[in-house]
What does this fold into?
Amino acid sequence: MLRFVIILFLLMIDENLHSQDLSSVDFRITCQSEDVLPGQNYVIEGDTLIFDKLKFYITHLELFDNDSLVLRSDEKAYLLDMSDASSLRIPLQFEGKFNLLRFTIGIDSLLNVSGVLDGVLDPTKGMYWTWQSGYINFKLEGRSSNCPARRHKFNWHIGGYLTPYQTQREVSLDVKEDSNICVVLALDELVRRIDLTNTYQVMSPGEPAVKIADDLVHMFKTCR
Amino acid sequence: MRTFIYSCAFIALGFMSFRWICGNIFPYQPSHFPVPFYPFQDNPPDSLMVEIGKRLFFDPKLSANNSISCASCHSPFNAFAHTDHELSHGIHDSIGNRNAPALFNLAWQQSFMWDGAINHLDVQPLAPISHAAEMGSSINEVIQKIEAITLYRNLYFEACGDSSISSAKILKALAQYQLTLVSANSKYDRVVQGQEKFSVQEEKGYKLFLKNCNRCHTEPLFSNFSFEKNGLALDPDLNDQGRYRVTLLEEDRMKFKVPSLRNLVFTYPYMHDGRFATLKEVIHHYAGDFNTKLDSSEKASKAIILNPNDQVDLIAFLLTLSDKEFVFDPKHLLK
It folds into this structure.
């Protein structure tokens, strides 16, 4: 009996030592380490920037523990929207060890040829092209003093699922076990990589979209 | 023995499910047509959804100013093409960039539009609904308008068990109606089914067709739905680069989807920009200009050699592809 109590006691200690179970993956949109507010000015390397709209898809959300898959989200896609704080928290329940988070920015080619879908993939969400079938994987709209377009506006609607112009990108991040995984999207990291004097209107699949898709990967980091 | 029984059962089951998906489930399958491409399992045929789709197809509320319906450019009496109009017409008297294609046998097509920009029948209506020179609206606006109409809400309640309106419900109903537009009852069809015979001239034309045209306009659908260069000079006003716009591949420049030749009596003018008013001009192009633009390596396999007599015979055959029963079928119209 005593032995049983000791074992039970040890188990309880172990339970307490074990960090809290994972409940969500939270995305923070930042610029120069501050949370981005739509309409606010940010000065990056002499360029004054305003971010008006940011929407993007996250798919194939997975957790790994030393290279072995421990959790795969059942959701086909998550649509994250800067103007909707609740969309930036992805509920993800998991008990156990993990040290790597992997996800894909954008919609895979299979879903791109599956006709009309519902939920976040509904064409009413403003993330589906009408003149040419396919999802916009990542949409960033804003203003930049460097941008020669009307009212200094830039529009990056990044999509395309046909090779060689496919724009889905995989991101892997080392993460610590915690109840919430925090992922930062550092918009300044993205903007620094793109020349806004030339690349300000990208709204169809092709070479410029592929270049921006490559750059997207670099702005995702774990929070400090 | 057991393995044998299992494999028999497996094959039988496979065959049954194949019949379920491709045969029984599509009530309009002609016996001499191949297996359709459309994924019916995602949108099983339903007579009520067909009725709703028909109503939507003829409803000008789909356009921004309630003036243009799908049927405006895809008229049932012209095999769902826009006869006598080179380019499609839209709201506010605007003119589009391409000839409105005839709509039939869509279940066998993998992509839509002259450049194949649309990859699924369900999402095709989004293009004309949103195009500024066509309906000038948006799917969100269409949902709002349809939601406000009690008749649609009642019909959807009957068909789906709830009266809510969504893009999927609108687009899938439109697809269901369009899938019923099956043209398979021309003289050609009756001949291949052994019910009728070609005249001597039609028979001659058929042989010429098989030799010269069938490579791309493959029977019985009269298209292989591939993208081909047909030697047409670029119209500098339209500057339409065809398939290139979609793939951005150099080899796809000036390639357009091969249209079906069925019902061509009703679907003039011809080609992606409606540049030829008559069938004679089309054949004249293929027997002439088309050959001169072929590379020397392509000449042997692709050249179309037709003397003036052959051209007349070929036209006689092509006229056997008219399906009057399809064109004047009252079941395609609103009651």
Notes: Chain A has one domain: 22-222. Chain A has a mean pLDDT of 92.
